[in-house]
Amino acid sequence: QVQLVESGGGLVQPGGSLRLSCAASGSIVGSNVMGWYRQAPGNPRELVADITNGGITNYGDSVKGRFTISRGNDKNALYLQMNKMKPEDTAAYYCYGVFSGRIYWGQGTQVSVSS
Q: Bridge partners of 1?
């Protein structure tokens, strides 16, 4: 009933920046939190950041100070500004959101950081 679509992934050099977007559609009322996870080959899924409907943010230790999560005014668009990127940021990034007590996931967007 809810669809999440990520965009903005790609290839960037170390020290560069990317901005990811996540657009939610469908039955998107009742959102409490949206965020981003990532998973690199051979690594477990890792929380990148999340944000509540009230604007409270939480960041994983590995990205704190470099990444910024935000939501659009309608609370159904999610963004991740990634700065000072490192090779270890290379991963598939997945948007998620909780709507009406259920969690929904996007299908991911690939981010690669390489020289």
A: none
